[in-house]
Amino acid sequence: MNAPLQTTPTRRQRRAPVGMPSATPAERDPRWQAVVRRDPAADGRFVYGVVTTGVYCRPSCPSRPARPENVAFFAEGEAARQAGLRPCKRCRPDEPPREARHAALVAEACRAIEAAEAPPPLAALAARAGMSEAHFHRVFKAATGLTPAAYARARRAARVRAELADPAASVTAALYGAGFNSSGRFYEAADGMLGMTPGRYRAGGAGAEIRFAVGECSLGAILVAESDRGVCAVTLGDDPQALARELQDRFPRAELVGDDAEFERRIARVIGLVEAPALGLDLPLDVRGTAFQERVWQALRDIPAGETASYAAVAARIGAPKAVRAVARACAANPIAVAIPCHRVVRTDGALSGYRWGVERKRALLERERPR
Fold first, then answer.
1. Which of 101, 145, 245, 276 is an S-S bond match for 318, by CB 3.0 to 4.6 Å?
2. DSSP character for 69?
3. Is residue 280 within 8 Å of residue 273, measured between CB atoms?
4. 276 CB contacts (<8 Å, ≥6 apart)?
């Protein structure tokens, strides 16, 4: 009988335990998984060197993955350089992370917009940041949640409101103080910025008409109010009179019109939204808040029915990852229940946190949206 064929074991087979190759030192290091994932959160914590290429990189480097047996880890770039390695030209590990560089450029652009008498052209902002217009537009929106033009409009609206808040200044002084160079352009933009004429805004909304109705739904009392621009309030509670008083406090000088049979029929559409939130509301909304609040409220409307997001995730989505508490305050200030679905925001561990209209109502709304 012939002897069995003998084969020479490979290098990996010679050093491996039975049936399973052993891990390299790099693979046993917990930092290796951050490199595998190209985790940007690990940038700044360490760098890794590739001995075969002689370069060192940040963990999120988009270059082709290195073989683990060729990788060494360093606490910082200086240690890698002392080991004879040079910085990667692609990820530039000795510079701030790309996200930080972009954030600094966007912050500088925001300051330029706020300081300018008129909104700077996109081309000028992009050139100042050293980017193409399209790239700068994407980076700015990713960081702020707004386009440069929308940010400029929001800042100008804030300046208009601040100028009109001064009782000693005339409307004419306010329009020039806000950076408008003609009254025509100011009055043309005033409705979009203030929801009413400048004079009416200064008078605290006096003369503005808001229709409202109070009804009952499965979650208790519900109040729906509508300005001439759209639904401006949807509130829930146990006491219908308390909901009406809250509306009066919010619009102290507006004319509140109730007992409108035609409008009371429309409230059924909003009650339908409460009973089946996933259907959405096809009525226009009159949403007015600070630029930050409006970014948060738009992010809430982007959360699909049946899903939830944490406050931290919403903060990251609008490009302000450290503003978790501010996001929570914006959710609490939301004046339009269900249509702006702040009930879909939960704690990081998935637990339900505070809800302006009660945690039990929040739980009920989420239960109704849950896929069957």
1. 145
2. G
3. yes
4. 368
Tokens, residue 305 = 């029915």
* Other Cβ atoms within 10 Å of 184 Cβ, number: 9
Q: Return the SS3 of 38.
A: coil
Active site residues: 57, 342
CB atoms within 10 A of CB 270: 23
Strands across the sheet containing 71-74 = 71-74, 47-50, 55-57, 86-87
> Each residue of 32-87: pLDDT tens digit?
999 999 988 888 889 999 999 999 999 999 888 889 999 999 999 999 999 999 99
Tokens found for residue 184: 């025509």
98-115 vs 122-129: helix crossing angle, rounded to 10: 140
Distances in Å between the alpha carbon of 178 and those of 67, 124, 175? 59, 21, 5
Please check whether residue 56 is in contact with residue 85, taking contact to mean a CB–CB distance below 8 angstroms. yes
Instruction: State the burial class of residue 68 (Cβ atoms within 10 Å of its Cβ: 0-12, 13-18, 19+).
Output: middle
Tokens of 185: 């352009």
**Taking Cα atoms as reference points, which of 361, 355, 328, 336 lies closest to residue 235?**
336
Residue 9 has pLDDT above 50, yes or no: no
Q: Within 10 Å of residue 253's Cβ, how many Cβ atoms?
A: 11
Q: Which residue has the tokens 């308390």?
A: 242
- Flag whether the pTM goes above 0.70: no
Rama region for 272: left / alpha / beta (φ>0; ψ in -120 to 50; rest): alpha
| Count of beta carbons in the 10 Å neighbourhood of residue 133 | 15
Query: What is the rounded CA–CA span in Å between residue 29 and residue 236?
Result: 53
Beta pairing, strands 86-87 & 209-217 = unpaired
- The residue among 334, 351, 344 whose CA lies nearest residue 368 is 344
Residue 235 β-bridge partners: 223
Q: 140 pairs with which residues across the strands? A: none
Which residues does residue 214 pair with via DSSP β-bridges, in sequence order?
223
Closest CA to 366 of 305, 321, 319, 314: 305
